[in-house]
Amino acid sequence: MSRLGNKPVALPAGVDVSCQGGTIKVKGPKGEMTLPLKGSISVKVDGQAKVAQVVRSSNARQERAYHGLFRSLLAGMVTGVTQGYSKELQIVGTGYRAAMEGSVLVLNVGLSNPVRFQVPKGLNVTCPSQTQIIIAGVDKQLVGAFAAEVRLTHPPDPYHGKGLRYRDEVVRKLTGKTFGSTAT
């Protein structure tokens, strides 16, 4: 029995959840999200208690796995449409900088040409300073995937510490080769 799948999802004020035709639709103050369901999973919404319950019709192994998965995804969707998700990247390095040109993120990170990223629909990308990028949106998967894609242009270097890193990421610096003189 799935303990996580049986736990109800609390619905804050202003959030509407509906399940029609095998699709979950969640509306909130920050936006709207949809998710197709698999198997015989459905969602019951209790308007009085302000909770949503994910229900499965069979006890098959795959259905039990989907039960916990879709409950977790539903909870993430509710959090996304109420609070939103964000990732913050920092740029470390002399001359490294970022800027927004319309809906295009432009990075100058020590390569011969600037790297340009088209911001996906549904994301809000800002650069409060030249060395800071904030990626925000309602979809946790989209925010994380775009942040990872941007970070891959120049991951943090363990020897010098230069590159793009998440705000709370700790980069352990490695010692380089040292040359000692053994002349007497």
**Annotation field: number of helices:** 3
Shape: elongated
Number of spatially distinct domains:
2
Structural class, from helix and strand content? alpha+beta
Q: Provide mean pLDDT, rounded.
A: 91
Q: What would you give as the CATH superfamily of the largest domain? A: Ribosomal protein L6
Hey, roughly how much beta strand do the residues contain? 35-45%
Largest sheet: 4 strands, antiparallel
Distance between the termini: 74 Å
Strand segment tally: 13
Describe the structure.
The protein is elongated and about 70 Å long. The protein folds into 2 domains: 3-82, Outer Surface Protein A, domain 3, CATH 3.90.930; 85-166, Outer Surface Protein A, domain 3 (Alpha-Beta Complex). The relative contact order is 0.14. It contains 3 helices and 13 strands. A 4-stranded antiparallel sheet has the order 11-12-7-13. The chain has a 3-stranded antiparallel sheet with strand order 1-6-5. It has a 3-stranded antiparallel sheet with strand order 2-3-4, with helices on one face. The chain is α+β, with helices and mostly antiparallel strands.
